[in-house]
C-alpha cells in the first residue's frame, strides 16, 4: 500500500468521541470553560470544532488504547477525525486525568487537570487584562482576546501551527517579533508531539524549504516570481488554492484563500515528511489527495529511518538492511520510523568498553555486506590516499565508529554512526544514475555466507534477425488460439521523478459505490475488467478498471500508477486515481464514451457504426502525436510497449487516447538503459523483442505501424495469416507493401470495403507508406514518432518504402524457409532440409 495513501487512510480512521448534546458555543470565558472530554467549541459558521480528542487507531492496528488526550481543532463536518491543530502535543492529558479548558486568573487560556487542579498547558501570553475570552473564529483560528475589545488579541493558534496550513493563516516570519510560523510534522499518527520535518520560510532569502531535523534540506520551492515559486509551477494550476506571498521589512509569509469557502481543504505535512493537499469529498466520505511533495516518498530525507533501504517500488517501501531489524514495529505501524532499524549483533568489541581505541586486540572480525545499486547514505567522509576498495575497507575496519564504506568513481568514502537516506535505485534507468555499491559493516555472524550468484543467462539465440522475425510471425499466428494472452512483463518499473500532478487515492468502498457495486461492465482487458462509474456529483463519469488479484495485476497496477501520474497529453488517457486496499487493485480513468478502436474497427454491431476515413486519419495522427510525446516530449522517455487497437480509446469527438500503461517502461533521459524482457501483444511485437536484445522506443513504432494497417483494412492483420503451406501472400501488410511497388495498381482497393470507396486516396497512399516504414525489420529504418506526425500531417514527403525484407522472404520471394521446434527452440533454416 503506497505509504501516503496509508497515512491518509489512517488519519481518516482516528476515531472521535462523539459529542454529547450541548448547545454549540464558540467562546470560553472566565467561569465558562469546557469541562470534561466531550464538551467543545464550534465556530459561528459551524465549520470548525475545538475540543479534546484521543487518537485511537485500534480498529486498524493491534496497539493498545492510547492513554493520551489532546486539545485540538478539526472540521466539524468531517466524521473521520483529522486534527488540524493540537495545543498540547508536548504535554498531553494522560489518563486518568480529566481535562478542563478555562481562562485562568491571569487571563491566559489553560488546560487544567480537574482531579488535581494543576495546569497541564497554557497559552503563556501576557494579557494586559484578566478579562479575556477565547473564541474559535470562522477560519479555524482560536484567539485569546480582551472581552471588551475584540481587536485586542493576546494570543492566537494561527501563530503556533502544528502540521496543517489553514486557509487565511500565514506561514513565515514576523521579522519584528521574531515569531516563526512553520508547519511541523507530528511524531506519529497518534502521538501529537512534533516530528522531525518542518516546512517554512527562510527569514532572509524568503525561500520556502522542507527540512529534516532543522539540518537537512529536502525540497526547496525556489524564488517567488509574483505568481508562484520557481520550482513549484503547479501552484497556479486549478488544483491548488490561490496563494499569496509577501516579503517586506516587517514580515515574510505565504497565505492562501479557498476558491470555495465551504470547501474543506487539507494542506498538511504528513508524519512521513511528505506534504500534501487533499480535499474532503462528502460523497466519498474521504480525503482525496491532489498534490504531494516530494512526489516519491523515498525522496523525503530519511523517511524510513537509519539502517534502512527505501524502495519506492516495494511494498512496504521501507526495509531494514541485512543484519538489522525493525526497532519498534508498533512505532513503524503508526508511521514513526525515526529509530529505523537496529543491529542484530553488536560489532566486534575490539575498541572495548574500556579500551578507548587502543589497538591491543587483533583486527576486528567484522565483515562487509554489499548493498547494490543504492543512493549512498547522507554524511559521507572522503578518505584521501586510498587506491583500492581493499584499502578503503581497511580504513573503515580501523575505526570503531565506522559503519560503512563505498569505493567508486569518487574514490573512498566512509560513514560513521547511523546510515540514513539510503534509497534503492532502479536498474532500469528510471533513476538518475544507476546507484552505487555500499558496503555495510556487520558482525561476522550476520554476513550471509558468500553464496555465489548465478549469472543471469538471458535468452541467447545466436541467429540472424530473420530468425527472430520468423518467430514473430509464428507467434502472430498463435493469436487465433491465444487471443488476448500476454507475455509477462519484467520487474515493476521504477518511479520516474518530476510531475507533481497528483493522482487520487480512492477507497475501495467508494469505488464500489461509484460503480454501483461493479454492475455496469464496459469491457474486459488483459488483467481485469472495466466498469462504468460516477464520481462525486454523479456527473463525472469514469472507467474503473478492477485488476485481477494476481501477480500480473499487481505489476500492471504499479506500472500504471508510477508512470501515468507524470505524463499529461491530449492523446493519452488520463488516470484520475487508484485504489490499493488489501489485495484490491483498481485504476480510475476518465470515461471514454466511444470505447476502444478494436470495438469500432472489428466488432461492428451494425453498419451505422463504420468509422469513416477522415476519423481514421484523425485517429492515426492523434495516436502518433501521443506516442511522440511519450518518446520525446515528456521529461523521461516512456516506451508504451503494448500499442494495439484495444489500448486506443476514443472520446466523444473520436479523439484517440492511448491507454493501458501496464507494460510501459520509463527510461532515463539519456536513454542509456533499455529493456530486454519481452512484453506486449502477439501480432504487434517488433522482431527485436524475440532476440532478447535491448529494445528502444522503435518497438512502439512497429506496433503503431501494425495498427495503421488495421485502420486501413478494418480487419485484424493476424486474421489474414495462413500458416498452412507457409503462404503469407495474403498477409495484409505484405499486400500493401507489394501493391505500393506495382505501378498502375490502385491502392484504393485495399481500403476497408465498408467505406464503399469513400476515402481520400492521397491520404491512403501516405498512410500505407508510413505503415510500411514503421514495420521495417531494422529499427534504424523505422521513423521516429515525431517524423511520423510530420509525414501524416503532410509536412514532410514520404519516400517509397522497401517491402519489409522479412515478409517478402517468408512469402516466397525466395525459397521458403523451414522452421521447426527443436527441444523447445524455434529453429529456422533458409534451405529445404533433406
Ligand atoms: C453568527 O452567525 C450569525 C448568522 O449565522 C450572525 O447573525 C451572527 O451575527 C454571528 N455572530 C457573530 C458573533 O459573528
Ligand atoms: C482579575 O484580577 C483581579 C485582580 O487583579 C482579581 O480580583 C479578579 O478575581 C481576577 N479575575 C478573575 C476572573 O480571576
Ligand atoms: C482595541 O484594541 C486595539 C488594539 O489593541 C486598539 O488599537 C484600540 O484602540 C482599542 N479600542 C478601544 C475602544 O479601546
Ligand atoms: C536531530 O538533531 C539533534 C541536534 O541537532 C540531535 O541531537 C538528534 O539526535 C537529531 N535527531 C535524529 C533523529 O537524528
Ligand atoms: C574514527 O573516526 C572519527 C570520525 O572521523 C574520528 O573522530 C575518530 O578520531 C576516529 N577514531 C580513530 C581511533 O581513528
Q: Tell me the structural class.
A: alpha+beta
Widest sheet, order of strands: 30-32-31-34-29-33
Tell how many strands the DSSP assignment holds: 46
Helix content: 10-25%
- By DSSP (H or I, 4+ residues per run), the number of helices equals 13
Average pLDDT, all residues = 77
Q: What is the CATH architecture descriptor of the largest domain?
A: Orthogonal Prism
Domain Apple: 351-443
Main location: membrane
Catalytic activity: L-seryl-[protein] + ATP = O-phospho-L-seryl-[protein] + ADP + H(+); L-threonyl-[protein] + ATP = O-phospho-L-threonyl-[protein] + ADP + H(+)
InterPro entries: Bulb-type_lectin_dom, Bulb-type_lectin_dom_sf, Kinase-like_dom_sf, Pan_app, Prot_kinase_dom, Protein_kinase_ATP_BS, S_locus_glycoprot_dom, Ser/Thr_kinase_AS
Question: What can be said about this structure in brief?
Answer:
With 834 residues, the chain is α+β, with helices and mostly antiparallel strands. Helix content is 17%, strand content 26%. It has a 6-stranded antiparallel beta sheet, with helices on one face. The protein has a 6-stranded mixed beta sheet with strand order 35-39-40-38-37-36.
Amino acid at each position: 500500500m503506497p505509504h501516503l495513501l496509508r497515512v491518509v487512510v489512517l488519519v481518516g480512521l482516528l476515531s472521535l468521541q462523539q459529542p454529547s448534546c450541548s448547545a454549540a458555543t464558540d467562546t470560553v470565558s472566565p467561569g465558562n470553560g469546557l469541562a470534561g472530554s466531550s464538551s467543545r467549541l464550534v465556530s459561528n459558521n459551524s465549520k470548525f470544532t475545538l475540543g479534546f480528542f484521543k487518537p485511537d487507531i485500534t480498529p486498524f492496528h493491534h496497539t493498545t488504547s492510547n492513554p493520551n488526550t489532546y486539545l485540538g481543532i478539526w472540521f466539524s463536518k468531517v466524521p473521520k477525525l483529522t486534527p488540524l491543530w493540537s495545543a498540547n502535543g508536548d504535554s498531553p492529558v494522560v489518563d486518568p486525568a480529566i481535562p478542563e479548558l478555562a481562562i485562568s486568573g491571569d487571563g491566559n487560556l489553560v488546560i487544567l487537570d480537574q482531579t488535581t487542579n494543576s495546569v497541564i498547558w497554557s497559552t503563556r501570553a501576557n494579557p494586559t487584562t484578566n478579562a479575556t475570552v477565547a473564541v474559535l473564529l470562522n477560519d479555524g483560528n482560536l484567539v485569546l482576546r480582551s472581552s471588551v475589545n475584540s481587536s485586542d488579541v493576546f494570543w492566537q493558534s494561527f501563530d503556533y501551527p502544528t502540521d496543517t496550513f489553514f486557509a487565511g493563516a500565514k506561514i513565515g516570519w514576523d521579522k519584528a517579533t521574531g515569531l516563526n510560523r512553520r508547519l511541523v510534522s507530528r511524531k506519529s499518527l497518534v502521538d501529537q508531539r512534533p516530528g522531525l520535518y518542518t516546512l517554512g520560510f527562510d527569514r532572509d532569502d524568503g525561500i520556502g524549504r522542507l527540512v529534516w531535523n532543522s539540518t537537512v534540506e529536502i525540497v526547496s520551492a525556489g524564488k517567488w516570481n509574483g505568481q508562484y515559486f520557481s520550482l513549484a509551477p503547479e501552484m497556479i494550476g486549478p488544483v491548488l488554492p490561490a496563494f499569496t506571498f509577501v516579503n517586506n521589512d516587517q514580515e515574510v509569509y505565504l497565505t492562501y484563500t479557498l476558491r470555495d469557502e465551504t470547501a474543506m481543504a487539507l494542506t498538511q505535512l504528513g508524519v512521513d515528511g511528505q506534504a500534501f493537499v487533499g480535499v474532503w469529498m462528502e460523497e466519498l466520505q474521504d480525503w482525496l489527495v491532489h498534490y504531494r511533495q516530494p512526489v516519491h516518498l523515498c525522496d523525503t530525507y530519511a523517511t524510513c529511518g537509519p539502517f534502512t533501504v527505501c524502495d519506492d517500488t516495494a511494498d512496504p517501501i521501507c526495509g531494514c538492511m541485512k543484519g538489522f531489524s525493525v526497532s519498534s514495529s508498533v512505532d513503524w505501524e503508526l508511521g514513526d520510523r525515526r529509530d529505523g532499524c537496529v543491529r542484530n549483533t553488536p560489532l566486534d568489541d575490539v575498541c572495548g568498553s574500556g579500551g578507548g581505541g587502543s589497538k591491543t586486540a587483533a583486527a576486528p572480525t567484522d565483515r562487509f555486506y554489499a548493498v547494490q545499486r543504492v543512493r549512498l547514505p547522507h554524511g559521507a567522509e572522503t578518505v584521501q590516499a586510498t587506491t583500492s576498495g581493499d584499502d578503503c575497507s581497511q580504513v573503515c575496519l580501523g575505526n570503531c565508529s565506522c559503519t560503512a564504506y563505498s569505493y567508486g568513481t569518487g574514490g573512498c568514502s566512509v560513514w560513521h554512526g547511523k546510515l540514513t537516506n539510503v534509497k534503492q535505485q532502479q536498474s532500469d534507468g528510471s533513476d538518475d544514475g544507476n546507484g552505487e555499491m555500499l558496503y555495510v559493516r556487520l558482525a561476522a555472524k550476520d554476513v550471509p555466507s558468500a553464496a555465489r550468484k548465478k549469472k543471469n543467462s538471458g535468452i541467447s539465440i545466436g541467429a540472424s534477425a530473420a530468425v527472430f522475425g520468423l518467430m514473430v510471425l509464428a507467434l502472430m499466428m498463435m493469436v487465433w488460439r491465444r487471443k488476448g494472452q500476454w507475455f509477462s512483463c519484467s520487474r515493476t518499473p521504477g518511479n520516474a521523478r518530476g510531475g507533481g500532478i497528483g493522482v487520487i487515492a480512492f477507497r475501495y468502498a467508494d469505488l464500489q459505490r461509484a460503480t454501483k457495486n461493479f454492475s455496469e461492465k464496459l469491457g474486459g482487458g488483459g488483467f481485469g475488467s472495466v466498469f462504468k462509474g460516477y464520481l462525486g456529483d454523479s456527473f463525472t463519469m469514469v472507467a474503473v478498471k478492477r485488476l485481477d488479484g494476481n501477480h500480473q495485476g499487481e505489476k500492471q497496477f504499479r506500472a500504471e500508477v508510477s508512470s501515468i501520474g507524470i505524463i499529461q497529453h491530449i492523446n493519452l488517457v488520463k488516470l484520475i486515481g487508484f485504489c490499493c486496499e488489501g489485495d484490491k487493485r483498481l485504476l480510475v480513468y476518465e470515461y471514454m464514451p466511444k470505447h476502444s478502436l478494436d470495438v469500432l474497427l472489428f466488432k461492428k454491431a451494425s453498419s451505422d457504426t463504420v468509422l469513416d476515413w477522415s476519423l481514421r486519419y484523425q485517429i492515426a495522427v492523434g495516436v502518433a502525436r501521443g506516442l511522440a510525446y511519450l518518446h520525446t516530449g515528456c521529461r523521461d522517455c516512456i516506451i508504451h510497449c503494448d500499442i494495439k487497437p484495444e489500448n486506443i480509446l476514443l472520446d466523444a469527438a473520436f479523439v484517440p487516447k492511448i491507454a493501458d500503461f501496464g507494460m510501459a517502461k520509463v527510461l532515463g533521459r539519456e536513454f542509456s538503459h533499455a529493456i530486454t524482457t519481452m512484453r506486449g501483444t502477439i501480432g504487434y511485437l517488433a522482431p527485436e523483442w524475440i532476440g532478447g536484445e535491448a529494445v528502444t522506443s522503435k518497438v512502439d513504432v512497429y506496433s503503431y505501424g501494425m495498427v495503421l494497417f488495421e485502420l486501413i483494412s478494418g480487419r485484424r492483420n493476424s486474421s489474414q495469416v495462413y500458416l498452412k503451406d507457409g503462404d503469407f501472400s495474403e498477409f495484409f501488410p505484405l499486400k500493401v507493401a507489394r501493391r505500393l511497388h506495382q505501378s498502375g495498381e490502385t491502392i484504393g482497393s485495399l481500403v476497408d470495403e465498408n467505406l464503399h470507396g469513400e476515402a481520400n486516396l492521397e491520404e491512403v497512399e501516405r498512410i500505407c507508406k508510413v505503415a510500411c516504414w514503421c514495420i521495417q525489420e531494422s529499427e534504424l529504418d523505422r521513423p521516429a514518432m515525431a517524423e511520423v506526425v510530420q509525414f501524416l500531417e503532410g509536412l514532410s514527403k514520404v519516400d517509397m518504402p522497401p517491402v519489409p525484407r522479412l515478409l517478402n522472404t517468408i512469402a516466397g520471394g525466395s525459397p521458403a524457409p523451414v522452421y521447426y521446434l527443436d527441444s523447445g527452440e524455434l529453429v529456422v533454416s533458409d534451405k529445404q532440409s533433406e
